[in-house]
Structures are given as C-alpha cells and as structure tokens.
Amino acid sequence: MNVESVFENNKKWIAQKLELDPEYFTKLGKGQDPKLLYIGCSDSRVTAEDLMGLGPGEVFVHRNIANLVVGTDLNAMSVVEYSVKHLNVEHVVICGHYGCGGVKAAMQSADLGILNPWLRNIRDVYRLHQRELDTIKDPEKQYNRLVELNVQEQCVNLIKTAVIQKAVRNHDLKVHGWVFDIRTGKLIDLKIDLDGILKYIMQIYTLD
Q1: Residue numbers annotated as active site
Q2: Residue 53: left (phi > 0), alpha (psi -120 to 50), or beta?
C-alpha cells in the first residue's frame, strides 16, 4: 500500500461528495446528532457505517479488539458517558463478528504479551459459559458461539454502568447485542434476553 494514495483517494472522495451535494461539508460542520452508539471490533474488515447502511452523523462509534466493554477502560467508558449524557443516543449496540481474531486468540493458551490482560476478559466469558461451550464438539461452531456469548457478556457489562442504568430508567435507552457474519455480510440480532439474564444479578449491580 502506498500511503500517498490515501491523499489522492481523499481528493476524489471530496469531489464525489460535492458533486452529489455542494453543501455536504457545510452540513457536516454544523454538528452531529447520532441516535445510536456502536461498540464494535477494530477488525479492518468490519466497518460500522457501511454494514449498517448509515452515513456521517448517524452513528457514534467506538471500536477495540473483540468489542469489549471493560469498566476500567477509560476510553470506552468516556465514549459511553459522552454519547449517552451529551449526545442523547437512544440505542447502544454491542456488535461482534464471526471470524474475530481476538476471540480466537483468547481460545488459545499462547502467551501474547501485552494482549494477555485484554484477552483475559474473553477467557472469563469462556469460564462463565464453559459448561455450554464444552458440549460443542465442532471447533468452528464453538468459536462462533463464544463470539455470541462475548457479545452477551459485554451487553451485561454495559448495563452494570451507572450512566446506562439511568438512561434506561429515565429515557428508555435500549441496549442491543448483534453479530456481523463476515462471510455473508449479514447483520444478525442475537435477541438477547437481557432482562432475564439480569433479573438475578441486578440487586448486586444496581446503582441509584
């Protein structure tokens, strides 16, 4: 890849946008009003706006390895706080994807250096759901199921936070768990029963 080509691509992109709408960048400069916060994976093959068919200003995006929501990650927590309290998003989506390298790495016993503490969060998901996962003998299906369960646990982690709890109570904020099938392009709503999952643990995590 020639990095200089990026700037040439940028010029072409500007020309294309202005040809369609001479006021395109003027409108962008007036601010943003996204209704959706998307927390997804950093994988270079998974672009949030494209897979949802949304454009600039329509979705606030945070991405990291394996779409994790970790309470001590000030980057992710700042994104959540800002999007919910200041942008007033109405939906928060955790979106994983099949073929996730982070999830696959967490299934292996290799020492991956600085990645170890990050991937430990996914290994904790495996531990929580080991009984189910160990019954899946097909490695690919087991891998895919861990991707789905990781999304589920990140939704739970999200709902543990005070800012999300208050927005759910006061503004009917919705939390969603999705998976992107990188082999077909299909976006899948996992329809996670968060109320059912949280029913027995919210007495521990509820924050007034």
Answers
A1: 41, 43, 45, 97, 100
A2: left
